[in-house]
Amino acid sequence: MPLANIFDAIGLNDQFLYVRELFQNDTSLFKETVSKLNEATSYEQAIALTQPLKWNPDDPVVQVFLALVKRRFLT
Q1: Rounded distance, CA 58 to CA 67, Å?
Q2: Confidence band (pLDDT; 50, 70, 90) for 45?
Q3: How confident is the model at residue 6 (pLDDT cuts 50, 70, 90)?
Q4: CA–CA distance, 3 with 52 (Å, rounded to integer)
Q5: Which pTM value belongs to this model?
Q6: pLDDT number for residue 35
Q7: What is the mean pLDDT of residues 26-54?
Q8: Who has the most CB within 10 Å: 15, 30, 51, 73?
Q9: Do residues 15 and 30 lie in contact, with contact meaning Cβ atoms separated by under 8 Å?
Q10: Is 22 within 8 Å of 52 (Cβ atoms)?
Q11: How far is CA 63 from CA 60, 69, in A?
């Protein structure tokens, strides 16, 4: 099911997990990045926004987070 807003799909526990594991404990970076992901016009553009974070694509936390991003762009 498509998401209108990625923030809405992230529960509080998952938010803490993502901030810790993906955003180096930087809540501001997490919020800024998710806001930019919500504003992206395509999945490809959204993925490009995550590239500077240098995530390991094999990390299960990365995979779950990117699955949410992908749901944002389902048509």
Answers
A1: 13
A2: very high
A3: very high
A4: 24
A5: 0.93
A6: 98
A7: 97
A8: 30
A9: yes
A10: no
A11: 5, 10
Residue 5 CA to residue 56 CA, distance in Å, equals: 24
The residue written with tokens 């501001």 in the block is 28
Distance CA 3, CA 6 (A): 6
Distances (CA, A) of 72 to 24, 26, 34, 60: 24, 23, 11, 19
Q: Could you tell me how far CA 39 lies from the centroid of its own chain? A: 12
CB within 8 Å of 64: residues ≥ 6 apart: none
Average pLDDT on 9-27 reads 98
Please give the structure tokens belonging to residue 64: 């779950």
For residue 65, give Cα distances in angstroms to 23, 34.
12, 10
Structure-block tokens of residue 72: 């944002």
pLDDT at 75 over 80: no
Give dist(CA 2, CA 23) in Å, integer.
24
